[in-house]
Amino acid sequence: MERLLLGSRVILCTLSMLSNNKISTITQIVPVQTIIFDEASQIEIGDYLPAIHLFGSSLRKMVFIGDDKQLAPYGHSDIPQLESVFEKQHLRPKIHFLDTQYRMPKPIGDFISEHVYNKKLKTNHSILLKTCCRFVNVLGGQEEQRCKSWINEKEIQAVVKIAKILQARRKSFRMITPYDAQRSAIEKALKDAKLPWEDKCFNVDSFQGTSCTVITLKRSSHMAGNEDDYIIVSIVRSKKLGFLVNERRVNVMLTRCRKGMIICSSRAFLDGIASESLIGGLAARMGRRSWVEYEQVLNGNFPMI
């Protein structure tokens, strides 16, 4: 094992792998002194205990990198009491907040800062126009339950047409939707349209990437997780808020684009039932000029961002 390590002092692995017996031959040669946990806001506190127990004699520092305004620990929707390390009040004074993001265009970044980060998140980006965010008014799009998930057939058509337009213009893009049934349906529609479909469409949870100073970093400067130049979003729901009540997940969905975002929903839904949601607020901020009619998209008349 020492020959295989070639003098390396850094181990990259999952948190669960640290508790696996197979790694013990490595940790005997490289004592664990510092552990850096990425996406720490998604880890329930009890999940750290095995690592602390196993390496307590050599461990000197634990660093937690994450964003408590994005995805919560797995199971939080069923057990709201589940906490990440960021929710512990006695540790919060030790947080270092990285206050500048470079990913999102300024109109989107400023909105997210105001409504999610208490106006503390600054934006450094060259795109300043509100046209970086477009909303497609999918009239007649209806939510339909599919097993325990949801789909919206008209939004699938709109998303695929937008993908075709962006592909023709040689733009780099990906798609996000809150519901796995919609994700699967979009993938199939992309295949049928002979468009790139692998590594293109994701649900929100899969798209967010992955002496002792207890917390040394709270990530916001580069915004954690996956991204692309253009992000196409399919909201799916048309009658009830559903996923949109979870502001942390919606925050993930709205913070993935580097150049532009296209959101498929209906104006009636975002101006009505969803008007108080984070995404409804974004639609209001971007204004009427950000809306594009469904028929324009079908005709290929989609304004450039």
From TrEMBL:
It comes from the Eukaryota. Residues 3-77 form the DNA2/NAM7 helicase helicase domain. GO terms for molecular function: helicase activity. Residues 84-266 form the DNA2/NAM7 helicase-like C-terminal domain. PANTHER family: DNA2/NAM7 HELICASE FAMILY, HELICASE SENATAXIN ISOFORM X1-RELATED. This is DNA2/NAM7 helicase-like C-terminal domain-containing protein. It comes from Guyanagaster necrorhizus.
